[in-house]
Design goal:
- The structure is a homotetramer of 101-residue chains.
- Helices cover 73% and strands 0% of the residues of chain A.
- Chain A is mainly α and 101 residues long.
- The longest helix of chain A is centred in the middle third of the chain and has 31 residues.
- The first copy, chain A, is elongated.
- Chain A starts with 18 loop residues before the first helix and ends with a helix.
- Chains A and B meet through helix 1, helix 2 and helix 3 of A and helix 1, helix 2 and helix 3 of B.
């Protein structure tokens, strides 16, 4: 579902100087999702599984907010005048998806 | 963070008859999170990464709603009269965490 | 949009013993929404308007969680055996709308 | 709760050319909140009240996304170089509040 992504010319992604940090956070989330599978396999009480799902969801949303911050700060702010409008439209669509997810 | 989980006596979890389905969905989410790591490693454009984060978040929320449905249907509905009040309180706390996450 | 509301027989609403409390909270939210109109009329800085919108949204969600709590506690819990299944389905649809809104 | 609002110099708000539109939407939301009071007074079935609360919440979030769009498009994009960083930080804090509300 990348239909909103207009082919706006862009260089290095905004998160580039923090790649290691994002990779570490995503590996931790991957571990949480694997932990969820273990919980289901072991018939863990529903409510405890749900608490863990909420934690993973929050961690993912926090990654999204971080990526968005770097995108606006580095990519949107540095857009050339002719791309600026399109980049704001694109960023707003991503924000809207986030708010609604 | 299981502080809300009072030690209410409970038998098999509500999702038991759909364990395979939940495991399959969680494995797919694990794959999405690993895909996110690959995207970061390959310097994928921020907005495309964000679209993928939104998809994983939605998949997790959908798992949560499913688990909650089974919990209310099987565990809360079948609670003994003396546990019923406590189970509703516990389920509502889980719902509130979901709504706010 | 009340298409999910099956005509399940029901007596007094679950919130009945707290009507005054809910009315007071809704009147306060109405005041917040009127305050928002004033802010727009007076050209208040966007970010300050947004902070106020977030406050009103949170207050509404908190009313929703309260109503849902009373509904599950009083209506779903007291449903007759033949209505119980339908009431849980109906309540879960409301929870899903809440989580996604 | 305007603690995040640094005193960044700013001119006309970004929504200025659409004030009438926002006022109309907020008046409609005010009407929805008044309708909710009437529903409570008339002992309307909990689930129907909840459907209406979800509708009002969605309408408020949609106003927020609109205001944010205009703010980023008109205020952040036009910030002077020395204010740009502070304006992005401020906008991101507003976005984070929205995502979490």
């Amino acid at each position: 579902m990348t239909e909103q992504t207009a082919p706006i010319p862009h260089g290095a992604p905004g998160y580039q100087s923090h790649k290691d940090d994002y990779l570490k956070r995503l590996r931790r989330i991957e571990g949480q999702v694997r932990g969820l599978q273990r919980m289901i396999e072991e018939d863990t009480y529903c409510i405890d599984v749900l608490t863990q799902v909420s934690a993973a969801t929050k961690a993912l949303q926090s990654v999204a907010i971080g990526l968005l911050d770097e995108h606006v700060r580095h990519c949107v702010a540095d857009a050339s005048p002719e791309n600026s409008e399109a980049m704001v439209t694109e960023a707003m669509a991503a924000i809207e998806r986030l708010v609604k997810s």
